[in-house]
TrEMBL record:
It comes from the Bacteria. Keywords: DNA-binding, Transcription, Transcription regulation. Transmembrane segments: none annotated. The keyword Transcription regulation applies. InterPro entries: ArsR-like_HTH, HTH_MarR-typ, WH-like_DNA-bd_sf, WH_DNA-bd_sf. PROSITE patterns: HTH_MARR_2. The keyword Metal-binding does not apply. Pfam families: HTH_27 (PF13463). SUPFAM superfamilies: Winged helix' DNA-binding domain (SSF46785). Residues 1-130 form the HTH marR-type domain. One of its GO terms (molecular function) is DNA-binding transcription factor activity. This is MarR family transcriptional regulator. It comes from Dysosmobacter welbionis.
Protein backbone atom coordinates (compact mmCIF):
# COMPACT_ATOMS: atom_id res chain seq x y z
CA UNK A 1 0.00 0.00 0.00
CA UNK A 2 1.41 3.43 -0.89
CA UNK A 3 2.52 5.78 1.83
CA UNK A 4 -0.47 7.94 2.83
CA UNK A 5 1.53 11.16 2.75
CA UNK A 6 2.83 10.40 -0.74
CA UNK A 7 -0.68 9.57 -1.91
CA UNK A 8 -2.06 12.78 -0.39
CA UNK A 9 0.69 14.91 -1.97
CA UNK A 10 0.17 13.27 -5.38
CA UNK A 11 -3.59 13.92 -5.25
CA UNK A 12 -3.01 17.47 -4.00
CA UNK A 13 -0.58 18.22 -6.86
CA UNK A 14 -3.08 16.85 -9.37
CA UNK A 15 -5.89 18.95 -7.86
CA UNK A 16 -3.82 22.12 -8.11
CA UNK A 17 -2.58 21.28 -11.61
CA UNK A 18 -6.14 20.80 -12.81
CA UNK A 19 -7.64 23.84 -11.05
CA UNK A 20 -4.78 26.24 -11.80
CA UNK A 21 -4.80 25.02 -15.39
CA UNK A 22 -8.31 26.45 -15.78
CA UNK A 23 -6.74 29.85 -14.99
CA UNK A 24 -3.92 29.22 -17.45
CA UNK A 25 -1.42 28.90 -14.59
CA UNK A 26 1.19 26.35 -13.67
CA UNK A 27 1.64 25.28 -10.05
CA UNK A 28 4.64 27.50 -9.37
CA UNK A 29 2.79 30.44 -10.92
CA UNK A 30 -0.03 29.94 -8.43
CA UNK A 31 2.38 29.63 -5.52
CA UNK A 32 4.08 32.88 -6.51
CA UNK A 33 0.77 34.72 -6.91
CA UNK A 34 -0.32 33.42 -3.51
CA UNK A 35 2.85 34.64 -1.79
CA UNK A 36 2.83 38.03 -3.50
CA UNK A 37 -0.86 38.49 -2.71
CA UNK A 38 -0.17 37.74 0.92
CA UNK A 39 3.08 39.72 1.27
CA UNK A 40 2.45 42.61 -1.13
CA UNK A 41 5.85 42.58 -2.78
CA UNK A 42 9.02 40.53 -2.45
CA UNK A 43 12.51 40.27 -3.78
CA UNK A 44 12.79 37.66 -6.52
CA UNK A 45 15.46 35.83 -4.49
CA UNK A 46 13.20 35.72 -1.42
CA UNK A 47 10.45 34.11 -3.48
CA UNK A 48 12.82 31.27 -4.36
CA UNK A 49 13.83 30.83 -0.72
CA UNK A 50 10.25 30.96 0.62
CA UNK A 51 9.05 28.46 -1.99
CA UNK A 52 12.16 26.27 -1.67
CA UNK A 53 12.62 26.15 -5.44
CA UNK A 54 15.43 26.89 -7.83
CA UNK A 55 16.03 30.57 -8.65
CA UNK A 56 15.89 29.74 -12.35
CA UNK A 57 12.44 28.16 -12.01
CA UNK A 58 11.20 31.28 -10.21
CA UNK A 59 12.68 33.52 -12.92
CA UNK A 60 10.96 31.49 -15.67
CA UNK A 61 7.63 31.57 -13.83
CA UNK A 62 7.94 35.32 -13.26
CA UNK A 63 8.69 35.82 -16.95
CA UNK A 64 5.45 33.95 -17.81
CA UNK A 65 3.47 35.95 -15.28
CA UNK A 66 5.02 39.22 -16.42
CA UNK A 67 4.22 38.43 -20.06
CA UNK A 68 0.57 37.95 -19.05
CA UNK A 69 0.60 41.24 -17.16
CA UNK A 70 0.08 39.64 -13.75
CA UNK A 71 3.31 40.75 -12.08
CA UNK A 72 5.85 43.47 -12.50
CA UNK A 73 9.54 43.34 -11.67
CA UNK A 74 11.51 46.41 -10.81
CA UNK A 75 15.24 46.73 -10.30
CA UNK A 76 16.04 47.79 -6.76
CA UNK A 77 17.35 51.29 -6.26
CA UNK A 78 19.64 49.86 -3.58
CA UNK A 79 21.21 47.08 -5.64
CA UNK A 80 20.92 46.76 -9.41
CA UNK A 81 21.09 42.95 -9.20
CA UNK A 82 18.01 42.77 -6.96
CA UNK A 83 14.55 42.62 -8.48
CA UNK A 84 11.43 43.46 -6.53
CA UNK A 85 8.25 41.73 -7.65
CA UNK A 86 4.66 42.80 -7.07
CA UNK A 87 1.22 42.03 -8.43
CA UNK A 88 -0.40 44.21 -11.06
CA UNK A 89 -4.16 44.92 -10.86
CA UNK A 90 -4.69 41.93 -13.19
CA UNK A 91 -2.45 39.90 -10.90
CA UNK A 92 -4.68 40.82 -7.95
CA UNK A 93 -7.57 39.24 -9.84
CA UNK A 94 -5.54 36.11 -10.55
CA UNK A 95 -4.53 36.00 -6.88
CA UNK A 96 -8.23 35.97 -5.92
CA UNK A 97 -8.72 32.98 -8.22
CA UNK A 98 -5.80 31.16 -6.59
CA UNK A 99 -7.25 31.95 -3.16
CA UNK A 100 -10.59 30.39 -4.15
CA UNK A 101 -8.78 27.22 -5.28
CA UNK A 102 -6.87 27.04 -1.98
CA UNK A 103 -10.08 27.51 0.00
CA UNK A 104 -11.83 24.79 -2.02
CA UNK A 105 -8.94 22.42 -1.31
CA UNK A 106 -9.16 23.27 2.38
CA UNK A 107 -12.83 22.24 2.36
CA UNK A 108 -11.98 18.99 0.58
CA UNK A 109 -9.13 17.98 2.85
CA UNK A 110 -10.76 19.00 6.14
CA UNK A 111 -14.22 17.59 5.51
CA UNK A 112 -15.46 15.99 8.73
CA UNK A 113 -12.78 17.62 10.92
CA UNK A 114 -13.67 19.80 13.88
CA UNK A 115 -12.11 23.28 14.02
CA UNK A 116 -9.90 22.03 16.87
CA UNK A 117 -8.68 19.04 14.83
CA UNK A 118 -7.98 21.29 11.87
CA UNK A 119 -5.97 23.72 14.02
CA UNK A 120 -4.05 20.88 15.63
CA UNK A 121 -3.17 19.40 12.24
CA UNK A 122 -2.00 22.78 10.94
CA UNK A 123 0.14 23.27 14.07
CA UNK A 124 1.72 19.84 13.64
CA UNK A 125 2.47 20.48 9.96
CA UNK A 126 3.99 23.86 10.80
CA UNK A 127 6.27 22.30 13.42
CA UNK A 128 7.27 19.51 11.05
CA UNK A 129 8.10 22.02 8.31
CA UNK A 130 10.14 24.13 10.74
CA UNK A 131 12.06 21.04 11.88
CA UNK A 132 12.85 20.06 8.29
CA UNK A 133 13.92 23.60 7.35
CA UNK A 134 16.22 23.76 10.37
CA UNK A 135 17.67 20.34 9.52
CA UNK A 136 18.32 21.40 5.92
CA UNK A 137 20.03 24.59 7.08
CA UNK A 138 22.30 22.50 9.26
CA UNK A 139 23.01 20.05 6.45
CA UNK A 140 23.96 22.92 4.16
CA UNK A 141 26.42 24.36 6.67
CA UNK A 142 28.00 20.94 7.25
CA UNK A 143 28.46 20.24 3.55
CA UNK A 144 28.95 23.67 2.08
Amino acid sequence: MPNRIEMFRRLERQYFRDRLGTLGLQQLDGMILHLLGREGHMRQEDLAVQLAVDKGAVARSLARLEKRGLVERQVSARCRREKHVSLTPAGEGAYQGVQRILEEWGHVKYQGFTPEERALNEAFLTRIAENVIEFCRGEGSEHG
